[in-house]
Amino acid sequence: MPRYVDHDQRRAEIVEAARYVLAHGGPAELTIRSVAKRLGGSITLVTHFYPTRPELMRAVVTAMNESFDAELADLETGADARGRLLILLKWMLPLTEQDWVNESGRVQLLSQRGKDASVEEFADGMDTRMRDLLRQHLEPLVPEDRVETYVDLLRVTVNGIVLAAVEHHDDWPAKRQLTVLDEALSAFGLR
Q1: Side-chain half-sphere of 39: how many Cα atoms within 13 Å?
Q2: Which of 17, 18, 110, 164 has the most CB within a 10 Å radius?
Q3: In terms of Cα–Cα distance, which of 155, 152, 47, 70 is closest to 62?
């Protein structure tokens, strides 16, 4: 008698394994074989649900976006517009060791832009999503004609902090990241 498999749960397990491989091994290590190995099974365990690497990559991006929405909604409950913006910006930073691992994987993946269409799709999708989140959080706080400028300012500020923290992990602890963010918000008139 065939064993029952919860397909949604299996897809979630595959995506989580793919995120782990990406974070710990970088984009070169993210293969269907490495994900199957992480799960302790054969490659058909993965290819049954995600036949190709680009499909697996799309599933990772989709899962990240869905988890972003749920996580942010929980964090922002009861906050006013300025509080919601601060929560978003802190959420974008690698303030914990796990955040650092995740951001390191993302930065490693971005180094492969132009070499792999699925990486390009991932990078474009993530940037669009982060910019959309910033825009939504800024619209109630700044004049309409300045929203895009503030999106750019905050996007490059957060990206700069993230990159510094990934490249120089020990030199950029959470306290330093938050201090720089606070100074930037003050300079931009958003504090």
Answers
A1: 24
A2: 18
A3: 70
Domain for residue 77, yes or no? yes
Structural domain includes residue 1? no
Structure tokens at 13: 């397990």
- Judge contact between 35 and 27, C-beta under 8 A: no
What the block records as the tokens of 188 is: 């931009």
Instruction: Give the alpha-carbon dihedral of 26, 27, 28, 29, to 10 degrees.
Output: 60
- Round to whole Å and give the CA distance between 154 and 161: 11
What domain range includes position 151?
Answer: 7-187
- Domain count for the chain: 1
Report the Cα–Cα distance between both ends of the chain, in Å, rounded: 63
In the three-class reduction of DSSP (H, G, I as helix; E, B as strand; rest coil), residue 164 is classed as helix
Is residue 2 in some structural domain? no
Tens-digit pLDDT profile for residues 147-184: 999 999 999 999 999 999 999 999 999 999 999 999 99
